[in-house]
Structures
1.
Amino acid sequence: MSRIPIPIQLVLLTVALTGVYTMVGQSVPQKEVHPPEVIDIASNISTDDMVEIGKDIFEGKGICTTCHTIGRSGALRFPDLDGIATRAATRIPGYSAVDYLAESLYEPDIYVVEGFNPGMPQINKPPIGLNDDEIMCVIAYLETLGGMATVTMDTPLVYTGSSSSGSEPARGEAP
């Protein structure tokens, strides 16, 4: 019987392992990622239009459904947003639902819901990078989850995550 020399065995093992890893790598579905689309939002759109745009942003560019659910219970990665408008109005004394939602989007680690860990990214910064108008539309959509949308493009926000001095306002302090 002839024996295969050890160096050749090592080469064969390396080729076989490379083949297996290549097969596994090619069998994993690949996700095609495109740059976020630019959404033009007129300053005079209706609240109903804001809700529709906000829903599209929530499900698409905002990638909110990556972590949040609507109408689910049990062990969840982040809070379920069904009924968020009702809960948001009572989370922080002195804050309206709109104020709470704005703060949660611009600075999500300021108030973390009990039972959940911090970890939501600021959606006005990369990699999500929503602008203020897009965030207003998302707030309009979130208001419909357990309530009625009241926000307009002219609604002043107590919290926007930035001020002219570059520092962020304290909770409840107008920018």
2.
Amino acid sequence: MSDISIDEGDWIAIYFSNNRKYIVQVRKNKFLHTNEGTIDLSNLIGIRYGSKGITNIGEEFTITRPSIIDMYDVFRRVTQVIYPKDASQIVVLAGIGPGSRVVEAGTGSGFLTALLAFYVRPSGRVYSYEIREDVQKVAMENIEKIGLTPYVTFKRKDVRKQIDEENIDAVIFDLPDPWNALINAWNSLKNGGRLVCFLPTINQVEKVVTEMMYRGFLKIETKEILERAYKVKKGETRPETIGVIHTGYIVCGIKP
């Protein structure tokens, strides 16, 4: 991959406007068909990122690199996914960075898996547990599609029964009953390691916090991340009418 120009196989973001964006992998003899016209992707190989182009009907577009969040657009979804506003907070609360070793359950469609793998590079690893074979297969395909497979070990096992890894930096649960896996999380975490749970209801929060207190976790916190987007236009700036409000609760704690 070039740092300056587009190579065959690169994923790129094509913008027609702030709200009209396409994520596509550049291949020879491949065409992108949009409402704004057709783009011959072969013609993009070798040009610089940041360049502009024209579709076959004269619509102008700009080419840039996609972010890891942009890449979610090419993922196949088979389960409810964690929104970026929650996933980014989970990464921060879990202390994820280059070299981190992280246990995750369940994998789902692989959205959080991808973000974790992106941040543990180049020397860290994500151990992602999922009990459903069909779901895991889709997640593996999604992660392979964006080139992050080298940083993920997929396991079709139940963390409620066992977590294989020891001395782990963080354990992250997106499960309906994480309290049933807390003893295994405790045993897997290193001293100072973080546990983070994502839960949709406050009843689940009460159960997991109670169990975390019993197990001896420190600095137990519960958060709800709210996000408000704004429409910004001269004389019309205001909050957007439609937004993502409640998606779930994040519970975190530290193993002393």
3.
Amino acid sequence: MAFVTIKQKETLEIWGELNSNWVFIKNYPFTACSGQLRPKVKEGVKQIPEGIYEIEHLNLYSLFYLSLKISYPNEFDKPIVEKQGRSNLGGDIFIRGKNKTVGCIPIGDDEIEEVCYLASKILSGRIPVYNCPKDFRKSAVVG
């Protein structure tokens, strides 16, 4: 299983592996969004981070019904900010219920219940989270 968030479209996609092929399972629209299409560079900027992360754990006691913690900042993020002379990247980024955010990914209560159920079946393994500013599958990447 893999989660793909596309900030520009404000969606969370769930993908699963079946017979060595990736298949689309379901799309969940964000119920709120904050920040801009750019990476999270410090705490308090209300940004969804951009990069490749993992689900760290399922939070059954969330203030936002249920939530899944994303492994932000990761080992890629930390050296970048150190090189730039910054220190506090923030943290506590979750995919969660409800409909408000200051940097998390809210998808609503019924939807997070579904996602948490799916994740609970996989959580003994690794669930990658690809946080993308836009859908690179639909446009050329220049560089």
